[in-house]
Amino acid sequence: MRIYLADKTEDLSVEGASATFTYRRMGPRGGVPLVLVNRFRGTIDWWDPEFLDLLAAEHDVILFDNIGIGYTTGEPRDSIEGFADGAIEFIEALGLARADLLGWSMGGFVAQHVALRRPDLVRKLVVAGSGPGPVPELPPLPEKVQAIMAKPDADADDMLYLFYPETAAARAAGVEHLTKVSTRLAAGGPAVSETAAVRQREAIVKFMTVPFEQVRANLETIKQPVLYANGVHDVMVNALASYVAVQHLDSATLVLYSDAGHAFLFQHVNAFATEVANFLAA
Predict the structure, then answer these.
(1) CA distance 38 to 50
(2) If we measure between CA atoms, which residue out of 170, 237, 156, 191 comes closest to residue 41?
(3) Neighbours of 127 (CB within 10 A)
(4) At residue 64, what are phi and psi to the nearest 5 degrees?
(5) 8-12 contact pairs (CB < 8 A, 24+)
(6) Closest CA to 164 of 106, 118, 212, 232
């Protein structure tokens, strides 16, 4: 099995006002760091190590567990705004004056709210496999997705269903991703507790009941450049949400992958890492 630099990166910690944050940092220092904000039920162990290595080839990359999630202490929040405050607390605890943010899935919800609450901290946003909240004609979340999200012990088949389309090529990419993250997971780091997962679900439910008028106003408030990206076959956050979002952002680029789903960023790891690098460098 290939050994990735991200697999050998040591855990670090920093004290915030309400938690001790665990994080990993890789890549060359200097410039504006790229802070990664994770998905529902995700910890820093779940980031694809090849994706991290590609991002860190030219960027200072920081990944962390939010308050009460995984390795980080504290009481987990129950709103997207609360998790955004946690991300802000972490960024400030590191002493960063500004950061670029890449939020995947629920992390995209959080990253956008960091930009809303503290625009001075955010230079650019990458919103991956995510959305701005409820948009007109957005299909409801499939019952199978809701059932898997509620399971405390989702298995590999569940993960593949949530993240990859049911094609041979996509499933092969999914199995490869699970193999790559297995090195960190085998070390036995903390998972997301069921209490934290329940609060994350509560945060998502609240987020998805905001009136579209507020969603649109939030998008129009974000003035930073934004890269929105999604897989066309995403069963968790329909790609329509990304299409609607960019219509209401001042400076946005939309990238869609026609053969991919929620984990397009790992299925098309080289292509998307290049998109991110080009976007951050522009």
Answers:
(1) 16
(2) 191
(3) 33
(4) -150, 160
(5) 11/44, 11/71
(6) 232
> Could you tell me the end-to-end alpha-carbon distance of the chain, in angstroms, rounded to an integer?
35
**Continuous H helices in 46-138:** 49-55, 80-93, 106-117
Q: Which residues of the chain are under the pLDDT cut of 50? A: none
Look at the block and give the residue holding tokens 């701005």: 132
Say how many CA atoms lie within 13 Å of 37 toward its Cβ: 32
Q: What pLDDT is attached to residue 1?
A: 65
The pairing of beta strand 61-64 with beta strand 122-128: unpaired
Q: Write the single-letter amino acid at 158.
A: D
Q: Which residue in the block uniquely carries the two structure tokens 């080289």?
A: 270
Q: What is the pTM of this model?
A: 0.97
Question: Could you report the per-residue pLDDT of 55-95, keeping only the tens digit for each?
Answer: 999 999 999 999 999 999 999 999 999 999 999 999 999 99
44 contacts 99 by C-beta, under 8 angstroms: no
d(CA 256, CA 3): 30
